[in-house]
Amino acid sequence: CISKKYGQGCASDCGSCSGLKSCHYITGFCSDGCQPGYATVYCNTTFPILNAAPEILSVFSKNMTVKVRLHNFRGQGEPKYYQLQYKVEFARMWMKSTKMLVTIEDITVVHLLNLEPLTNYRVRVVLFDME
């Protein structure tokens, strides 16, 4: 099969394999895993991800308020939970809030407390379609 094709008559397209590599020419498996945001051994399923980054509404010396549009997402699966994650700008580890249930409201406001003053933070939201 030519690159990015597999199966009988090489008629099937490979998924989004890691490193932009091709999948196995018979099975379609991605042996080195998937590109970020893709799942299954075929790398053809996308996780639910937000279409827009969280919006910072206010920042004070030790806390910030963040707005998230939880129903503005793409990918497969219906998000049931979300988790706000944040870290000091160049830190490696993300601090995680508890998983919260996605409600019927589209806009959710979250308060981050006890932050370090005069410090830049990165904020993201992770969606979960199962526990």
TrEMBL record:
CDD domains: FN3. This is Uncharacterized protein.
